[in-house]
Amino acid sequence: MPNIQQQLAALLKRIDRPGDFYATGTLDMHPPRLRVEGVGTIALPLLPVQASLLVEVAEQAPYGRGSETLVDTEVRRTWQIDAARLTLEGQRWLDDLDALMPRIAEDLGVTGEVEAELYKLLIYDAGSFFVSHRDSEKCPGMFATLVMILPSEFSGGELIVKHQNREVRLDLRREDPAAIAYAAFYADCRHQVLPITDGCRLALIYNLFRRDGGPLPQAPDHDSARGALTQVLSQWSQVDGRGEGQGEWQGGDRIEGQDASQDQAKWPRKLVLPLEHAYTEAELGFRKLKGIDATLAAMLRDAAAASDCDLHLAMLKVRESGWAEYCGRSRWDDDFEIGEVDECVQELHNWRRPDDSASSMGALPFADHELCPPERRQDIIDAEAEFHEATGNEGVTFERQYQCAALVLWPRGARGAVLAQGGLDVSLPWLSELLAATNAAATADAGSPEPLAEARALAQAICADWPAQDHARHYASRKGQSAQFLMALHRLGDTRTMIDFIAQCIAAGGYGEQDNPPLVAFLGELPTEHASALLDALIKGNAQRDPSACARLLADLLARKPELAGEPAKPAAMTLLDALPTERPAPNYHGAPQKVTPELVTATLAALDSIDQSIGEAIDPTPAKPPAVHLAQEALKRFLYHLEVYDPDQILIPAALAVQTGKAPLAASAPMAEQLKEAMVARLRQRVAAPIEPPADWRRPAKLRCQCTHCQQLGRFLDSPTDASWRLKAVKKTREHVTAEIGKAQCDLDLKTETRGTPHTLVCTKNQASYAKALRQRAADSDNLHALLEPNGL
């Protein structure tokens, strides 16, 4: 059995010509000067007073029935003015009309020159209409009718055109007063004008004809191809994995299931159909497609709607780069050929829905086997490459890009899998749209479960396709995507998927501080046993990497769910305690150190103190007895003992101040808070009491690591009690080396370079930077001591 790409390619070849039974659009034309006998020049947009004058000089429009011409307002209620009583002036109008004819001919699938002959002016005032009918041939060679709606204000009056089993409803109203809407359709099409509900609709009617004397053009008949397309897409849609027992998708393909044939199991998740004409991103839209592209889009739009498939229009972009080879006789020839592709990015972006509204989906990757027909890959291969000649140790390289518009299809039941495969930048915005649609449906009391069911299916697919690599998970967390997904799952009420996501992704290292609010909200609603298990998994998986975030999670969750405090939260607390750093944090594989923050101290003490108290009360409820365990006490000992990790000025003092000002989860009255405060007060008092004296002479402390000749000279200068400055005349490399060593040792020196003479001179002048720094530290210590001793004075 041929795969779906081959079947669609064969069907598309059956489309022998572009076009459809109707054409419609909007023109920013130069409106004509319209003169009407008995009224004069008509202002555009049409004025109500002139609409009344036109009705006065017009006649009731008749209709034909067999050989008879009748006037019956039950069948047709409108007014007409014959072309002989009209004058259309303006060269630009005629030029615009001539330019429109080829476009209409292409949209109708007509070859050869098409001309337009003015037939009449129709005035549809309020209540006017025309029931379904066919136009008769009004002149030799006439095959179609063109309706042009001049600028006028009205409502209602939609044009319905039917051909065989198809029907379109065209709204020809335009808000722009300079815009002229048009619609053309074959004469054998049945059509009707719905009643005008307000205002007045002013329409110029043209007969479209050819003078070549050949057979009259007929509407393109694509019904058989359209039906076959619908059938193939319906088969595809039934193999999309929506129902139970239909197998599972693997990568871009399916594996065989009990309801899918072996051939169908290999059909791709989505299809990408590149278009023929060139389009820019700015002009991309279903209504702006040309020729065969427009025909193909119209057929696929109908077939997709009938087969439960999604259809989008997007820009297809391919970027390739790699190394190239010289193909001339010497290496100086300018002729190269592509050697090997090192990097290839294939993606779809700039999405448009069939109604031409934009979608917030990001770039979606596609694979070669998803192209239809498959030979379109050759167009990408044939794209012109840009070569870059060898530089240094790098050989000749190349880059090439290919871009075109494409129609993109996938079964609606596989939408979640397709979007999830595209990555979080694609799937999460779509999930947000579905949630908004779900809320709108609930607000309107629509009672439709479709947006909610689709959102849940997409959420499950996102969870299954969440990035597996550690660095990708951390990146998703830092971008807030993990938190966004957690909040979406919580809003959906999808407890099972949320538990799976937390256990498989968040607890496995893809976690950050911004994930805490949705985690606390969700875990706070779970039964204690389940919340305890997930909390323990979260802390175990992340405490070594981000202890601060874990401590805050534990503290906030215990505040939200007090029944967790005690034995249920003890395993997580013990894990956090063991993970508290006792050595200076080393950079992780992202290049960033572990996060040690004042909040780590306050949140850890708050959480562990709560657990201590709960366990102590459970063992002996007598308030006078201390708790039986001392997790918080052990944590405080680590903080106060390992000052190289928990720097007092950066970590511990700010933590104590946060407790005093109520900006920390730890209560100021808690015993741990009092002990932390006492330790910091003692340290500050000791430093405030230490004397600070300005330098007695020009000696300046320094610990120079380098012992080269110039650095030894620098050391002797720093140790001299009488020398205030030192001049080093040396080459640039030497001056830069000495400058770097001065910076590493934080010497009390001002530096400048004298450019007079060669080589230049580095001038080093001693200052009192260390003394000034000590004074600033003394002032900060005094302020902090005052704040800790008198918090209400802040």
TrEMBL record:
Residues 240-263 are annotated as: Disordered. PANTHER family: FE2OG DIOXYGENASE DOMAIN-CONTAINING PROTEIN, MYND-TYPE DOMAIN-CONTAINING PROTEIN. InterPro entries: Pro_4_hyd_alph_FE2OG_OXY (IPR044862). It comes from the Bacteria. Coiled coil: none annotated. This is Prolyl 4-hydroxylase alpha subunit Fe(2+) 2OG dioxygenase domain-containing protein. Residues 120-206 form the Prolyl 4-hydroxylase alpha subunit Fe(2+) 2OG dioxygenase domain. Residues 241-257 have a biased composition (Basic and acidic residues).
